[in-house]
Amino acid sequence: MKNENRKSNKTKLINNLYKSLYRIRTIEEKIALIYPTDQIKSPVHLSIGQEAVTVGACAALLEADVVFGTYRGHSLYLAKGGDLNGMMAELYGKSTGVAGGKGGSMHLVDTNRGIMGMSAVVATTIPQAAGYAYAFKVMKQNNIVVSFFGDGATEEGVFHETLNFAALKKLPMIFVCENNQYAVLSHQSERQSNTNIAERASVYGMHSEKIDQNDPYTIYEKVNWARNQIIEKGRGPFFFECMTERYREHVGPSERDDIKTLSAEIVDPLQQLSKLVSSDFKQNVFKEVDLELKQAINFAEKSAFPAKDSLYKDVYA
Questions:
Q1: β-strand 173-179 against 238-243: which pairing, if any?
Q2: Tell me: the pLDDT tens digits for 203-259?
Q3: CATH number (domain holding residue 128)
Q4: Angle at 210 between CA 106 and CA 3, to 5 degrees
């Protein structure tokens, strides 16, 4: 009976991972099509190809757990349960957007779902995540914080300062590096003398691990294990370097022709998951996502732009 339950639970999880990843991929591909029409009012940084990291990690989190992300944040926002209507309206610069139409694609936030925000400035949300985790510890809350960032962020001083502080204070947090190997157009090997980021993180005295598979299930298992270690045994922080790939250019909707080559050993996570779910399940997902996306676009198109008198609202200096 236990084996049957375990198998059933794994099947359910695989289905959920597939649905989340397909949903994000489909939404971003639609954004890529809309972008040239100028209806989207901000630059977009698409996660197509690297969705496995956030999908797998967020599947292991509770709603009350908190995440901080980067300007390439659509995938994290959606994987953690962010409202799609609010996201699309934000991209359209509408008042019904999650930041009132003022933040755009790079500043998505939904605090009700534990999405504390993203930033256009590299590495700036890493110390904010540690601060939130420190508050959790002081207040003795049984929740964790996950900080998502790219390989380029590990070259910023605040990355090292935060890892040191987090390890020193044994904070209830997980650092997740989405290593797509490129900072804009520069390959990691051209920027870092030691390209093993997990190895560098380990010197601060935390469990650090490199995950080579661009596989959401593997990432789920690792993050789920780490979260249990933090909640049940008081351990932390943890560090995971997840090797992945982005298929579009650094910013904008176009296919990548701005780099030397894609990594042959890194697979498309959606294609891999597609082999593990039934045709009937996929057909239902296709219909559900298609309807949801149409409704979100309609919501964004019909929403009003911010009123002029909102220009100085929430401006404090």
A1: parallel
A2: 999 999 999 989 999 999 999 999 999 999 999 999 999 999 999 999 999 888 766
A3: 3.40.50.970
A4: 100
